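Comment thread on ticket #2218

A.B. wrote:
> Attaching the input chain for the structure job we discussed in standup.
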Amino acid sequence: MRYFQLRAFDAVAREGSFSKAASLLGLTQPAITTQVRNLEESCRQALFVRTSDGVHLTDAARPLFELTRQMFSTEEQIEDLVSLATAFSRGSLKLAADGPHVALQVVAAFRKEYPGIDISVALGSQREVWDDLLGYRVDAAVIGNAASDARVMAIPVARQDMRVLVPGDHPLATYESLSLADLDGHPVIRREFGSNTQRLIDEALQRAQRSLSTAMELGSREAVVEAVRQGLGIGFVLEREVPDSPRTVAVPLVELCACNIDSVVCLHSQRKRGIVQTFLSVAATLDLSVSSVSHSAS
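C.D. wrote:
> Ran it. Output below, let me know if you need it in another format.
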């Protein structure tokens, strides 16, 4: 069993892909495949199951992945300590976020102080971001209403209201604010399963013991915005996601005032890494909350 076999195994487990692991380590895909195959031969069992949606750990491989994460997290901490000597003039940080607005504000604040750090941000639903974090595929994440989890630490950075998004000529566009009762009879564009926005709406409807008719379900906030523009239904967006367009109007929803708390989160096992610790320190100095709750035409 060799170091590079474990390195290749750990990268494939994190990325869920042989090609992505190869890109991460700066190697060819055949080289990664060979290293993993050799490790499987040493272990005398399969470590991955290949399916149409990616590569997944076998049950037998999960304890090994926990150990390689400890091993390479320690190695990364050592590298970070060395990097501290150069005041983070170089390095990389991999992030995930369930929306670009707050995440990129945090990134901008960090890049202002540490311009030499290469940063990548993967966008996805709340569920996808959470899975990436727990799967060690990212160093940290920016997520709305992070679940309480003993494995994770969270630093709140912003609070947002929910807005009802309607076409500019819609009867509801003239309202200063709306309640769920006001939405009866207006078909709604739903977000996909795993969406934080949709979860907030569904929970509010459950509390109010109400339901709304569905026009259609779409897989991104951009698609929802375009569907509303086309008059296919009304939608919901957090206040930082309100589109800059004269064709839509965003009206505050009274039941969901200050409903979303965006936090920078990381695994406790990762937070001692110098670059992650520094990113968290920058986030802790920020207050990105939007104080205005007035009617917003866009």
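A.B. wrote:
> Thanks. Noting for the ticket: Confidence is low (pLDDT under 50) at residues 290-298.
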